[in-house]
Specification:
- This protein is α+β, with helices and mostly antiparallel strands.
- Among the domains are: 1-105, 434 Repressor (Amino-terminal Domain) (Orthogonal Bundle); 362-406, no CATH class; 416-516, Arc Repressor Mutant, subunit A, CATH 1.10.10; 528-659, Electron Transport, Fmn-binding Protein, Chain A (Pnp Oxidase, Chain A), CATH 2.30.110.10.
- The strands form five sheets. It has a six-stranded antiparallel barrel with strand order 13-14-15-18-17-16.
- The chain is globular and about 85 Å long.
- GO terms for molecular function: DNA binding.
């Protein structure tokens, strides 16, 4: 159906204050691709649509021209008359006084993740309010729930916050839901709540991530700012609140913001407890996003202290906490955020807790499709069913909702950007994983050791990779065999299609890695045991070069230097260096591994190859040994008098031969 999506996209972008270039960067696409979206010459896929709606804080229906009701009950038409909808089964919101069967029919708001927004617009809602009762009845102070993306985590957290928050009036929103028939309804809007979403806390640099983290906390500080002048808080509490809020709002340096962020959540909880005379509920959605993004971006070590400190102080160091719930795709165990918590429950998809709260049951799917005038068929079950969470069999809620809206049985959930994480992980694994992976593809199921208690990047290994595939929704558990051993299977046809692409990539990668290994071994054999090479180091935009005696051991390069020398300081400051000789340039990363005397293999080879240098320097007290791990190598070669560049991308285990074309 023809839409005016491009016009609404332009309006929402301008309203939110983004340029085309800024929004393209946030989406991770080229600026020309984004410009084509706004010109109408190209349409984004569903994955990109959802990201656009998240960034612009609007629903997919609004992006396709749905009218949005204003507080006065009138229609706000953002584009001057365009009112086309995303799908014909969805009807526009109407003022209460207007009568017609079509007008009174509830809408299907694809992409809406705000509970109040959804309920106030009389949208179709698959009732998951049992989540509230299960959470309040739990004996655990801190709850961590891991589920695949798009399984309803954000909407459930929004619903929980709406129910608990004492600053809200939410009774009408829960009318007719399961929770309204429970005794728990008496607790509605009775507690102070801090609700944070880390969904967009990511970036290409530590500075960008810290800025996004600042934005996430800024909103809650702004929401509670009026209470500081109510006369209830101590002078010290007012000072700390003001200081934190000022730091969050001003354009301070990343270091200053990091110092404030570390204790900002705990400080806010303490202020709220004093003001309301009640302990605080802390809700953090997508808590693991910044950890994953920092690891992918290569700056994890620069923000790990901040992220771990902020969450640890809020969860372990705050006496103002009543309960906390965090959601994410996987557990972050490395930073000991949850260690020392005696009252913690981690609910993975293998556990029965909250098993019916995320994902649609078959009865819920049938009810939704009947409401949309559609039949439930075996094809729908084969396409979207198959997930086992705890003791519940559930469907992928995103895919089912999109199918109900578009009425086309196709893949909606699987996307290439998510698969990039899996591709990287698959490319790193060895022969043992390859055998089990082949069995999975051939038979549709496999028995394996699974690690669900830590993120893959923290604990790389076969068990953690199987855990990553489960947490990502690519596999599901069909049977528990032993403590950490499960029988796994691909859940449905939608995911099987993704495995086709993933397997094709994996086979190409394995072949490429095997070829690279051969070529790299040949290169190191030709390099030999030792070489005199030019070492280039850089510090504060100053590059220095000097001749070094280098030893090669098992594909890594070693050299020694005096720690009082400038080159030592440069390497410590910036461990990225290069070594050159004749037609070869080797780029890599250095690390100090002690004194030469402490490494017998190096010392023996160095003494044999460079006896004079050994006598003069190796036994000195200040002498230190560096190990360089190559990451990228270029070698110039001539084939039939034609110049070529051999490229060894060591980090990705890829080799290629490029003809030199000149400048």
């Amino acid at each position: 159906m023809k839409t005016e999506f491009h016009k609404y996209l332009t309006v929402f972008r301008k309203q939110r204050g983004y340029t085309q270039a800024q929004l393209a960067d946030k989406l991770g696409i080229s600026r020309s691709t984004y410009a084509n979206y706004e010109s109408g010459s190209r349409s984004p896929d569903f994955e990109t649509l959802e990201r656009i709606s998240d960034i612009l804080n609007c629903t997919l229906d609004e992006l396709f021209g749905r009218q949005r009701e204003t507080e006065e009950g009138n229609h706000e038409n953002l584009c001057g008359g365009y009112t086309e909808t995303a799908c014909e089964s969805v009807t526009p919101y109407r003022a209460e006084g207007e009568k017609s069967r079509r007008q009174s029919k509830r809408k299907l708001l694809i992409g809406a993740q705000d509970f109040r927004y959804l309920r106030e617009r009389n949208a179709y809602y698959v009732d998951k309010t049992q989540f509230v009762e299960q959470f309040l009845d739990s004996w655990y102070q801190v709850t961590l729930i891991t589920r695949p993306r798009r399984f309803g985590k954000t909407l459930n957290m929004s619903m929980l916050a709406e129910f608990l928050d004492c600053t809200k009036d939410s009774e009408a929103l829960f009318k007719g839901t399961k929770i309204s028939k429970s005794e728990v309804i008496d607790e509605i809007n009775q507690y102070p709540v801090v609700f944070l979403s880390f969904l967009n806390v990511r970036g290409d640099t530590p500075h960008e991530m810290i800025q996004q983290l600042t934005v996430a906390l800024q909103g809650e500080y702004a929401r509670y700012y009026p209470i500081i002048n109510a006369g209830t808080l101590t002078k010290e509490q007012k000072r700390v609140f003001d200081q934190n809020y000022l730091c969050l709002c001003q354009n301070d340096s990343p270091e200053e913001k990091a110092g404030c962020l570390t204790h900002a959540i705990a400080d806010l909880c303490q202020v709220l407890e004093t003001y309301y005379n009640k302990k605080v509920y802390l809700l953090i959605d997508e808590y693991d996003t910044p950890f994953i993004a920092a690891n992918s971006g290569g700056y994890y070590s620069q923000v790990r202290g901040l992220l771990a400190g902020m969450l640890s102080s809020a969860l372990k160091g705050s006496s103002s906490l009543e309960k906390a719930v965090l959601t994410g795709i996987q557990r972050v165990a490395k930073e000991n955020i949850f260690s020392g918590l005696n009252n913690l429950i981690v609910c993975t998809i293998a556990d029965p807790d909250y098993d019916d709260c995320f994902g649609f049951t078959e009865d819920e799917v049938k009810e939704l499709l009947a409401y949309c005038g559609m039949e439930f068929t075996e094809s729908i079950r084969e396409m979207y069913d198959g997930y086992r969470i705890g003791k519940a069999d559930v469907y992928n809620p995103w895919s089912v909702s999109c199918y109900a809206a578009r009425r086309e049985l196709q893949s909606y959930w699987v996307n290439t950007s998510e698969n990039s994480i899996l591709k990287d992980a698959l490319g790193e694994r060895g022969r043992s994983f390859a055998e089990d992976y082949d069995k999975l593809i051939e038979q549709g199921a496999v028995e394996a050791e699974v690690e669900l208690s830590a993120a893959y990047y923290e604990k790389p290994g076969d068990a953690a990779l199987w855990g990553l595939l489960i947490n990502a929704g690519m596999l599901t558990i069909s049977e528990k065999i032993d403590e950490n051993r499960y029988r796994l299977r691909v859940p449905n046809q939608e995911v099987w299609k993704a495995f086709g692409e993933l397997t094709s990539y994996y086979l190409r990668k394995r072949e490429s890695m095997s070829f690279f290994s051969e070529k790299y071994s040949e290169l190191m054999d030709q390099f030999g045991i030792s070489k005199k090479m030019v070492l280039s180091t850089a510090e504060n935009n100053i590059v220095s070069s000097r001749m070094m005696s280098v030893i090669q051991i098992n594909g890594k390069l070693y050299f020694q230097t005096d720690k009082t020398f400038r080159k030592y300081r440069q390497i410590v400051q910036n461990p990225n260096v290069s070594l050159c000789i004749d037609n070869i340039q080797i780029e890599g990363r250095c690390k100090e591994i002690g004194r030469p005397l402490e490494n017998n293999e190096f010392l023996q080879k160095f003494q044999r190859c460079f006896p004079d240098s050994y006598k003069r320097y190796s036994l000195l007290e200040n002498e230190v040994l560096f190990e360089m791990t190559p990451t990228y190598i270029e070698r110039w070669v001539y084939i039939d008098s034609v110049p070529f560049i051999e490229i060894y991308d060591v980090s990705n285990e890829e080799y290629r031969l490029d003809e030199y074309k000149g400048r």
